[in-house]
Amino acid sequence: MSRRVLAWCGLLLGAAWSAVPIYLIVASSLKAPADLFEFPPRVLWHPVATSYRTLWTDWPEFFRALNTSAIVALSAAALTVALAAPAGWAYSRRRGRALASTALLLLAARMFPPIVITIPLYPVVQRLGLADHAAVLIVLYTAFYVSLATWLVKSFLDEIPVEVEEAARVDGCGTAQMLARVTLPLAAPGLAATFILTLVFAWNEYLFAFLFTATRTKTAPVVLSEMLGSATGVEWGPLFAATSIQLVPMLVVVWLVQGALLRGMTAGAVKG
Amino acid sequence: MTGPVVALLLVVVVLPEIAALVLSFERYTYGQAPTWIGIANYVALWNDPAFWNALRNNVLFVVSAVLLELGAGLAMAVVLAQGFPLQRLWVALYLAPYAVSPVVGVITWKYMLEPDVGLVNYALGRLGLGSPGWFVDPWLAFSAVVVIEVWRYAPFVAMVCYPAILSLPPDYFDAARVDGAGPWQTFTRVTLPLIRPALLVAVVFRVIFAVRTFETIWILTKGGPVGATEVLATFLYQQGFRYWELGAAAATAWVMLAVTTLAAAWYLLSLRRAAGDAG
Hints:
The structure holds two protein chains of two kinds.
Chain A: H1 2-29, H2 50-58, H3 60-93, H4 97-111, H5 114-127, H6 134-157, H7 162-170, H8 175-186, H9 188-204, H10 207-212, H11 220-228, H12 236-256, H13 258-264
Chain B: H1 3-23, E1 26-27, E2 35-36, H2 40-46, H3 49-81, H4 87-99, H5 102-113, H6 119-126, H7 138-166, H8 170-178, H9 183-194, H10 196-211, H11 215-220, H12 232-241, H13 246-278
Antiparallel strand pairs in B: 1-2
């Protein structure tokens, strides 16, 4: 009995440590600016949208950035899954030395610090006139998330019995047709989870977005950091509102794709 | 079928890495033509106290953050593995910091650590511990950065260890209970040794990712006060994108890559050794 009580205490402590800081942001975004630094903070209050209204009138830039973030994240996730699906299938179903060496490349690519490639890439991007283009971010995100995505897809495909594919072949399907008609539809939940996970990473990314965007294609995290670093002092109200808008969709996502998160982070790292 | 993925990685990841290596042997101020100068950039790094400061901070950061993440993450995993009603909700709450942007993490903690009005200082004041200036004092600024990192990544360790604990056969725990082992003994004698492979993966991943740490520090302190939170990535950023010495920055980048590679090699070796133990 006492052990159960202890377990509950531990559970609540851990949940508080992880979730209270985030809760404070969202709760504060619904308070009147004057009440933001009230002590002790009020637990029950009448929610007001003042901060959201200020954000809307004073920071049109944030909503542009939100739009850019959505375009970049959705495109990067779609491209990543499009590339990862056939590659994941090959790793799941085929063996061979060439395949093994590319597997090593995929693992190594995840180990490289992204900031290293910004140095040679920056002059190239400028010269090609691609600075401040969303396409740069989409390509970079795809390159940096595709190896994790490939392994995630592979781990989902490993659970689909080969017999299903063999049956399709007996019925006269070619590889492309078999993938499109049989394998990928069966793997749809796994592909969706991979898509969403990539979406989260791309939506939250800061380093590349900070380095390769100037004005037109700033993403939401970049604008958030600018609001925080504002020289005239931080306007916490609108900042909390903006932060809440940026983060709440991600919380919904964690809820939806928990299973993929739990299997995904180290996919390909342990021989399975 | 793997062609497009391999091509993309070669062009966007591997080729620039090699280009960075070439650059690191050149004097290349952005906008001017690069000239070959051999290992001069590396010699300059060796003689630069600011570089050693960044490297030392980086090592200190990796060690302290990863150890704390390991402790906190393991505790989270063990607690979650006990199983509770609404398990999905608890898991989501625990993992939430991992799903928010690093920028959001900084905003949250900066708000709580604000010297005059933040929640943490209010609590400390109530306890008679004064109101520390978190972003002014070098050690406190460093600690703040570590705390934020631990907050963000302990859930990652938990995420790797929790499924590993769940996959252990219940017989082991029953046997431990029959033998009269308490919770602590069960943890150290049964759980911990059995989840060692997962733990190893978590540590190596975290070390590799902590070596490259940039966002939290850059947004919160920009490496200050007086270099107290400067790490390789922020040092590299200033070399490259503030002073526009891309050659010198590339040399720092390769030092970073070397540190990462050492960590990765250690990981692959231990994996092989673990596989050898098993079979």
